[in-house]
Amino acid sequence: MLRIFKKAENTFSSRGKDNELADYYNKDLYRFDFKTVGERNKALKLLEMRGFDVDLVEDLTGYVVKLPRYSKYAPVLKNTVAMIETPEWRIFLMKDLAAVEDAQKQGAKIVEVDVKF
Q1: What is the structure's pLDDT at 8?
Q2: How many CA atoms lie within 13 A of 36 on its CB side?
Q3: What are the DSSP calls for 31-63, one per residue?
């Protein structure tokens, strides 16, 4: 997971100076997808040079929570980076550990297995 935080007036755009990263940006999933570690590292450097505060999280343990599929999930969804559904569960990748704590207050349980988003 690559978390990118805006500093001051910085935003990502697929036009102009951010065009170098446009090929990696998945608009449908609102995330960057890289085929190699080298591509990812290059993007990290470009984003940092442009004033973005980048936080690379390689181990998702502790960032993934689940709720029963038919429970209310809107309060959890607002702090979610990605979500998948199974017949029994809605599984959320949370943006940070504070969001995980908030989700737990809403009844979510931490997922202890490896989940692919």
Answers
A1: 37
A2: 3
A3: EE--SSHHHHHHHHHHHHHTT-EEEE----TTS
